[in-house]
Design a protein that fits this description.
Chain A: This is Protein ImuA. The complex is a heterodimer of chains A (258) and B (490). By secondary structure, chain A is α/β, with parallel strands linked by helices. Helices cover 23% and strands 27% of the residues of chain A. In chain A, strand 9 (193-201) and strand 10 (209-215) form a beta hairpin. Chain A is globular, with a radius of gyration of 18 Å. Chain B is 28% helix and 31% strand. In chain B, a hairpin with a 2-residue loop joins strand 2 (18-24) and strand 3. In chain B, 31% of the residues are buried.
Chain lengths: 258, 490
């Protein structure tokens, strides 16, 4: 399973295909990814984004220092004043020392700083948080980010809160929502769970929907049902096994041209 | 003529007796005492219990030798006001060579008075024709400054030799000086003779003054004023190259670079940048300077042109040229590029806009971490596997007030209203009780003085979102009890 299988798989595609068991990198290294969420789901979207970036850096054998994460946000545009919590990050397997937080005055400055960080070879992930319309993020801006990411191998994640989808050069576009967790004893809230929907994928069909829950043993999100269904041992690492809950295979080919 | 000064570590304005204590073996002993304590019969080396019995009002503070050394260094630099030749006499003395300097201050005594006033500590001066004599007079001498009356303690010999001297009936330097040197050397060691001859001025006692390090600076003056920014930048690059050569020779790198532009009409403009790591590469510094000029509200205004450009590097740190490594080079290049990126962003956006998380040893959730400017942050390992309940990924700052309906007064909430939206609670865990930090408050140990206790609950609502809420205050103790939302779990 450690082999990277694209979402299409090599076998027959479509509804009948064993693509239900196909696994692929949710957020591939060296590309631009967009993560959409509503404001109350921001924590879930951040956890999804950060945990994937973190597991990639570790799987590539980078040191703790080399796997630097730059989290950028435009202060003025923030509706709810929130801070990252180091303990919370550590629970997601991210050493808080890797994180550098950058606050910019405007969204243009954030794009500029993000682009600079993306060109820096020692960085492993650039995370930009925006809320609302984000008018400065157009095709040109996204294409610049894509080129920078491809040249340096940095993963760029753009978190868009309460925003409409806009065409861009991103590799994938996800919509993340919090999902009910599996309760622990005595009706205690369980481990983090998110519902991820792939809205767009540049090299594959979009429209997949997964229910992911946190796997504390391996320190990554994994499909809640996959383990029981395949019965295959889980291989920890960059590859997160996903199986589709629902595919609309008939319109796959149309939907990939977003 | 030489003057030596020993300084007590305590300010002499203290009305109560004061002493510094240090742990020696298993007992707390006085490390040093101030003048009042000395008058009351206390002395360094006494146990703290004995000292307290003699003098119940004694104020103590733990001794901190590294801080003393730093303070002595500062005093040494301050003493350069009187003479360029200042040497350290560790741990608590300074030796000033004041030959040829006294007339500037109105004589040796006036110089000593001024120096002691500048130091601001209780101190004992001693004057001698050579360094060892001055040192011995300052530490063991009486007011008359008679070398021959000094006790044999002034020789700084070990205890065995001192006891032997005393047994032989030799109590002062004068007694010893009258005996033949050969006999002294045979019985008490050669060191006794060397010290004695140094104090008597028969052998040289050189001091090793600390030389002030020359500041790193470069300047360019022009016959005709220059006005174009590009020309100015060329000149600055040239100056940075000169400074880099100076720093390279001394294995230094600059942390702060200051540029002053002197305009022909007398106006002055300043540019300053700071870097996270010591650098001396002119290109890197120039890039940061350009960043700074770009972010300035009014760019360089040359007016009728600049007459001169001055460059100074006021803060330097050791920077050793590193050898090119064969392996791990990529990772190191990556690290260097990150440091450069942080510098660049810090200069463009302001250093407090580029920050890192650092752990703090507090248990109030918002106090347990701090955001430190990335240029000052040190790599701290995050405390692993804390023994408390899980913490959320995002914290609200400040916590958001919510309206809560709870089943029982001190139970978990059943539903809550936040931002005009009603949330039904599906799952709840808690409480995790976090008490206020009473030891940080002035009246914290009094009932009600510590601040309010918080009861934290982990909550999941019907939509599957997880929250961290707390009840501010305890039922039965406080009346208006509020609920706050403090964080969002993934």
């Amino acid at each position: 399973m450690a082999v990277r299988v694209p979402i299409y798989g090599t076998g027959p595609s479509g509804r009948q295909a064993p693509a239900t068991q196909a696994s692929f990198r949710a957020l591939e290294q060296g590309h631009l990814h967009e993560v959409h969420c509503t404001a109350p789901d921001r924590a879930a979207a951040l956890a999804f984004a950060l945990s994937h970036g973190a597991s990639q850096a570790v799987s590539q054998g980078m040191g703790a220092q080399a796997g630097a994460i730059f989290a950028l946000r435009a202060t003025r545009r923030q509706r709810l004043p929130t801070l990252f919590s180091g303990d919370g990050l550590a629970l997601l397997g991210i050493d808080p020392g890797r994180l550098t937080l950058v606050e910019t005055g405007s969204e243009v400055e954030m794009l500029r700083a993000g682009l600079e960080a993306a060109r820096c070879p020692g960085v492993s992930m650039v995370l930009m948080e925006s809320e609302g319309r984000f008018a400065d993020y157009d095709l040109t801006a996204s294409r610049r980010l894509v080129l920078a990411a491809e040249a340096s191998g940095v993963t760029i994640l753009l978190l868009r809160g309460d925003a409409e989808q806009r065409s861009s050069g991103a590799q994938t576009r996800w919509s993340i929502r919090s999902a009910p967790s599996v309760p622990l004893e005595a009706d205690a809230p369980g481990l983090p769970a998110v519902e991820a929907e792939l809205l767009r994928c540049r090299s594959g069909p979009a429209g997949g929907r997964w229910l992911l829950s946190w796997d504390a043993e391996h320190g990554c999100f994994r499909d809640r049902d996959a383990g029981e269904r395949d019965g295959r041992p889980y291989v920890p690492g960059a590859v997160v096994p996903f199986s589709r809950l629902r595919t609309d295979a008939g319109s796959d080919n149309q939907r990939q041209v977003a | 003529m030489q003057a030596a000064t020993t300084s007590d570590r305590s300010p002499d304005a203290e009305p109560a007796p004061f002493a510094l204590v240090a742990r020696v073996g298993n007992a707390l002993r006085l490390a040093s005492v101030d003048r009042i304590a000395c008058r009351q019969g206390l002395a360094a080396g006494m146990t703290l219990a004995d000292a307290r019995a003699r003098c119940p009002t004694l104020v103590t503070h733990p001794a901190d030798p590294p801080a003393d050394a730093r303070e002595l260094d500062r005093l040494l630099e301050a003493m350069r006001h009187f003479t360029p030749m200042v040497a350290l006499d560790a741990p608590d003395g300074l030796i000033l060579d004041i030959s040829g300097c006294t007339h500037l201050f109105g004589g040796a005594q006036a110089l000593a008075r001024q120096a002691r006033a500048m130091a601001g500590y209780a101190s004992r001066p001693g004057f001698g024709t050579n360094a060892m004599a001055a040192r011995a007079l300052a530490r063991h001498g009486r007011a008359d400054g008679d070398i021959h009356a000094l006790p044999v303690m002034a020789l700084d010999l070990d205890d065995g030799a001192l006891a032997a001297l005393r047994r032989a009936g030799l109590r002062s330097i004068g007694d010893l000086a009258r005996r033949p040197m050969g006999m002294i050397a045979a019985r008490f060691g050669e060191q006794a003779v060397t010290r004695l001859r140094q104090i008597l001025g028969e052998a040289p006692s050189p001091i090793a003054p600390r030389r002030p390090s020359a500041p790193i600076r470069a300047e360019a003056r022009f016959p005709e004023p220059i006005a174009r920014t590009e020309d100015v930048m060329d000149v600055i690059e040239d100056l940075l190259g000169q400074a880099a050569r100076q720093m390279e020779a001394r294995k230094l790198g600059g942390r702060r670079f200051v540029i002053r532009l002197l305009r022909s009409d007398g106006a002055r403009q300043g540019l300053a940048i700071e870097t996270g790591q010591p650098v001396r590469d002119p290109a890197a510094v120039l890039r940061l300077l350009r960043e700074r000029i770009d972010t300035m509200a009014d760019p360089l205004d040359p007016g009728f042109g600049f007459d001169a450009v001055l460059l100074a590097v006021p803060r330097v740190e050791p920077l050793v040229e590193r050898q090119q490594a064969m392996e791990g080079e990529e990772a190191r290049a990556g690290e260097e590029s990150i440091v450069a990126l942080i510098d660049r962003l810090g200069i463009r956006l302001g250093p407090d806009k580029v920050r890192r998380l650092q752990p703090r040893d507090r248990h109030i959730p918002e106090g347990a971490q701090a955001f430190i400017p990335a240029t000052q942050a040190k790599a701290h390992p995050w405390p692993a596997s804390p023994d408390h309940a899980p913490r959320p990924l995002l914290l609200f700052d400040p916590p958001q007030p919510v309206a809560v309906i709870a089943g029982v007064p001190d139970g978990p909430p059943q539903r809550f209203r936040w931002r005009d939206q009603l949330h039904e609670v599906r799952l709840a865990e808690g409480p995790e009780r976090i008490a206020a930090e009473w030891w940080r408050r002035r009246d914290g140990h009094q009932p009600g003085g510590a601040g309010r206790t918080r009861d934290y609950y982990r909550i999941e609502d019907k939509d599957g979102r997880r929250y961290w809420m707390f009840r501010h205050g305890l039922f039965g103790e406080e009346t208006d009890i509020g609920w706050y939302l403090h964080g969002l779990f993934a």
